[in-house]
Amino acid sequence: MDLQLYGKKALITGSSKGIGEAIARKLAVEKAFVIVHGRDKALTEKVAKDIIKQGGRACTVLGDLTCDDDVQRLVEEAEKLAGPIDILVNNAGGSGGGKQGWADTQPASWASAYDRNVLAALRVTTRLLPNMGQAKWGRVINISSLAATMPPATGPDYSACKAAINAMTASMAKEVAPDGITVNAVSPGTIHSATLDTRFREFAAERGVANKDAPWEDIERAVLPMFAEVPIGRVGRLDEIADAIAFLASPIAGYITGINLRIDGGLSPSL
Known about the structure:
Layout: E1 9-12, H1 18-29, E2 33-38, H2 41-53, E3 57-62, H3 68-82, E4 87-90, H4 107-135, E5 138-143, H5 156-176, E6 181-188, H6 194-207, H7 216-227, H8 238-248, E7 260-263
Parallel strand pairs: 1-2, 1-4, 2-3, 4-5, 5-6, 6-7
Helix pairs in contact: 1-8, 3-4, 4-5, 6-7
């Protein structure tokens, strides 16, 4: 299926690795001009160069999304390199490392997580919406998490941030719909990233259920049931997230806005 993304310019925040990188590569395959963003220059440039080597179009911007000046600069650079941006994927953020419990959670960690996840997305989005509105076309896709609707006992700051992302998505979608802009959230479940791969392998070795260097299928079969009861029986793949986002970013999805698309293998117990 032709997703009609040729000529569209897409900025994917936090796309030097992981889910963001997979999204950037997929949009490039679909003929969008991709702006790869990161804070590590070497990693960010590597992704862009690889996309170009494979026949895609890409450039890079660097910057800390918790800094207003950095965001203003990188948006200006992106528009100078690619032109007005049609598609924004707010992927940057994350849990920031170890998960605190309610016994030791601190207000400072909540403030930091909110800045890194919610305000970072807000800073970029509000700078791009005016041009999208003038063009009467735009796509904003916010990467949320299943933790927003199924929060675990640990990491309450991260879960709360992703819940805020969902609320921001629903509110913004109503405001900008008359301008031809759609705003949606995507909530990945358990996804086979490099981080998850390492975590599962270490857990398998610690519990003695599989060799740390065993084939991934063996690791997945032994460890996944200890983490989550996924009805499909496996973890998700990065390309499955990227494919869904490419669809939402396309003109074909023009009547879809204000949704939270869960990609979780059926893990969520409700609609």
